[in-house]
Design goal:
5 helices; 5-stranded mixed beta sheet
């Protein structure tokens, strides 16, 4: 049983999603947004808000795993730089508590949750709602963060199975 905190970073709105993985089942624990826009237009107070918000989430949910979306290099390099700084604030909050960091591209996340790396936001929201059996559709940033957590759960399972297979193969060869 693992608790996974997923983060969809943003310099104004940072989505978060927390799930528990129990066997093959996923249990929704919480989601929402850290609203850094309330800190004003200056970047430093917004980064502090993100850091404090993620730190509080870690205290509240006590996750075993932390996963975050990688920076997408779009048309606006200034936006990508701010996004990278927001990611950094969230990552520092996680590493301060000893959590290891898993990073996934938007394409990997969509592939894991929807089945195609080219899925749109509405498709991600629908699949997150379906997989977690939510009564309503989560807000877009929160859905993206829940998708990050689900992606990590799937990836972690796959890696665990692969490492188990490798261990079995190595043990057979040693005999």
């Amino acid at each position: 049983m693992s608790i996974i905190l997923g983060i969809d970073p943003g310099s104004r709105l940072t989505g978060y999603g927390v799930i528990k993985k129990s066997g093959r089942n996923f249990i929704y624990l919480g989601s929402g947004c850290i609203k850094a826009i309330a800190a004003g237009n200056e970047l430093a107070p917004r980064l502090q808000t993100i850091f404090a918000g993620v730190s509080e989430l870690i205290l509240q949910f006590q996750p075993d795993m932390f996963a975050i979306e990688q920076v997408f290099m779009g048309v606006n390099p200034g936006g990508a730089l701010k996004l990278g700084q927001a990611r950094g604030a969230a990552i520092v909050a996680a590493t301060n508590t000893g959590l290891s960091i898993a990073e996934y591209s938007a394409r990997q996340i969509k592939q894991a949750v929807v089945g195609t790396g080219a899925a749109d936001k509405a498709q991600v929201q629908h699949m997150v709602k379906t997989i977690l059996k939510l009564p309503g559709t989560p807000q877009a940033d929160a859905a993206d963060a829940l998708a990050v957590a689900l992606c990590h759960a799937h990836s972690h399972d796959s890696l665990s199975k692969m490492s188990g297979q490798v261990s079995k193969t190595v043990r057979r060869r040693l005999r």
